[in-house]
Amino acid sequence: MQDLKVSLIQADQTWEDRKANIDMFASLIAPLTDTDLIVLPEMFHTSFSMNVSLAEHWEHNVVINQLKSWASHKQAAIYTSLMVIEAGKFYNRGVFVFPKGEVTYYDKRKSFGLGGEDKVFTQGNHEQIVAYKGWNINLQICYDLRFPELIRNRIGADGSPAYDLLIYVANWPKKRVLHWTTLLKARAIENQCYVVGVNRVGTDGNNLEYPGSSAVYNGLGETCLEMNEHEGVSSIVIAYEPLQNLRFNLPFLKDRK
Description:
Layout (H helix, E strand, L loop, with lengths): L3 E7 L7 H12 L7 E3 L16 E2 L4 H13 L2 E10 L2 E9 L5 E5 L21 E4 L2 E7 L23 E5 L7 H15 L2 E5 L2 E3 L5 E3 L3 E3 L5 E4 L5 E7 L1 H10 L8
Parallel strand pairs: 1-2, 2-4, 3-4, 8-9, 9-10
Antiparallel strand pairs: 1-15, 4-5, 5-6, 7-8, 10-13, 11-12, 13-14
């Protein structure tokens, strides 16, 4: 099993401005070299807005084409979310774009009622785990983080856990940053997996402040990487062997019913 280099990009997203955000992320992605997976915040090209006039048509999605272009150029997968419309319904949809252009998607399952998301977007109804470079990766979005029952790791018939890495992309406000860091660590510990959380920085159109605090934690909840409140890019190699050893020495997942 090969190690995986993950690049976290936390940025000050421009409120409801697709071009400004795409240009900004393009400038942050451009210097990246030799990475396997690039993770951008939630609703990367609009920020966390309920303005569905900005939704992309899923069937002919120019923003997905932009993500495909970046993935192809960098020969790296990309995970983020964006608002889409499909069959007359709106979704906060996570998209995992492979380097060769394939796309796997995940619809956010827990809508953020305090922000009115439940009144606008249709909730997803299934888990999405993607296989990439030997890693099984569970895709999640922001408010999903508060609901551990959504992503209970488990041992399959072959004796292996369902996934090795959890990714949360978010627009998580500064006033609840303690919850963000605590819950990311908890998800790592209880599921014996790596957790990557990528959050935005700055202030949005609703005057909500965002703390960044993007991070990577290992299966013991230990900090592998933590970012500050500033826009930037950080990369880290996560190793599979220590995770495998942890699961062998502390086989807690096998006791889960």
